Amino acid sequence: MPPGALSRERDVREAYAAHAGELYGFAVRSLGDSGLAEEAVQEAFLRAWRAGARFDPQLGSLRTWLFAILRNVVIDLGRARASRPIVAEGGIEPTVEPFEEALLSWQVEEAMRRIGEQHRRVLVETYYRGRPYAEVAKELGVPEGTVKSRVYYGLRALRVALEEIGYDD
Amino acid sequence: MTTERCREWRESLGAHALGQLPEEERAALEAHLAGCPECRAELEALAGVARLLPLADREHFDTAPTPPLSLGDRVATAIRGEQRALRRRRLRLGLAFSGATAAVAAAVLAIFVLPGGSGAGPEQRVAFGSLPPGLHIGATLEPHAFGTEIHMYVKGAPSGTLCRVFLRGPDGARMPAGSFRYRWGDDADAVLSAALDLSRTQAIGVQVGNRTFVAPVESSDTA
């Protein structure tokens, strides 16, 4: 058994303390239901514990491994919820595509939560609300050049945050 | 392309990546970009992030949903349930394969693998009759030098119900055999023991919550 393997109950408790918040946040985002999300996270940790001996920290982070397990759980839950019959051979798997999209959405939102308030604010005002720089600058009481500069550093910070949470372009 | 000139333009790259630069400024920046591979690379990196922004919903920027506190406990409980079931399966396998002779292994397997079999060995399966609807109780008793080993199975009681098990001797006295809690979703037997020889045991009883159920045991002393 590799060192760091997730085979004891205590290991799972530690993994839960470190990652359950993120996993749950993502599960809510992709399933759109907090009850289902709880079910998914519980099942993911149970599967992680069952397969714990196979986790090798040398091959990748615990976080990445747990997200991969949760991905399978979410897909299984999606399948179980779909009332339509199983897709015929060669058909397109109906739940994978929305999953990847949900993962990306969650990653960007999580990255936004991680960057500084000043950076997030200018991105929300100028990009999401489409407000002119001059107006935002006046409201914040800073020169227009500062808004532009914050947009630049905000995008850079967002890029770093995305890398931290496993976004891989 | 000097560092100084780049610094001048750098901070416009974010606005440019988001398509927010006024026309004249954009034209001037593009003239600089044409001759500056470093700034072009920086713009490319920012554009990669900018392309993702439409996927996010700004309603979710301020707070992330947090899991209820009880979820951690539920995960721990589910894992402990599986651990218990696993230990018992291992114990059964251990009993089955550590026997010195094939006959012993066969007798044990008859009980644990083929619960319908009567078993040629000394173990006894006990049936609890007249149980309330929905409640199931079963037990297997196994003689040992120390007394009697009891594998008890309860299903259908409220989760968390305390179950106390006892054996009754020839004089009618109770010999306690321990207790366990019935949990929903845990279908493993509870393994208990009592310091009363199986050959002298008249009955087995279990108190499930506030009700007590007793089943007779075929005692070899009286048979």
Please, could you describe this protein's structure?
The complex is a heterodimer of chains A (169) and B (223). Chain A is mainly alpha-helical and 169 residues long. Chain A has 7 helices and no strands. Chain B has 223 residues and is α+β, with helices and mostly antiparallel strands. Chain B starts with a helix and ends in a 7-residue tail after the last strand. Classes of the chains: A mainly alpha (169), B alpha+beta (223). The interface between A and B is large, with 51 and 39 residues.
Please render the helix and strand layout as text.
The complex is a heterodimer of chains A (about 170) and B (about 220).
Chain A: H1 9-31, H2 34-50, H3 62-81, H4 96-114, H5 117-128, H6 133-140, H7 144-164
Helix pairs in contact in A: 1-2, 1-3, 1-4, 2-3, 4-7, 5-7, 6-7
Chain B: H1 3-10, H2 13-17, H3 23-34, H4 37-50, H5 70-98, H6 102-112, E1 124-127, E2 136-144, E3 147-155, E4 161-168, E5 174-182, E6 190-194, E7 203-208, E8 211-216
Antiparallel strand pairs in B: 1-2, 2-3, 3-6, 4-5, 4-7, 7-8
Helix pairs in contact in B: 5-6
What's the number of extended β-strand segments of chain B? 8
Return the CATH topology of the largest domain in chain B: Immunoglobulin-like
Characterize the largest beta sheet of chain A: strand count, sense, and whether it forms a barrel. Answer: none
Proportion in helices of chain A? over 70%
Greatest chain-chain interface? Answer: A-B, 51 and 39 residues
Mean pLDDT of chain B: 80
Helix % of chain B is: 25-40%
Helix tally of chain B equals 6
Unreliable sequence segments of chain B = 99-120
Structural class of chain A: mainly alpha
Identify the notable features of this structure and list them briefly.
heterodimer; A: 169 residues; mainly alpha; 0% strand; B: 223 residues; alpha+beta; Arc Repressor Mutant, subunit A; Immunoglobulin-like; 2 domains; four-stranded antiparallel sheet; 6 helices
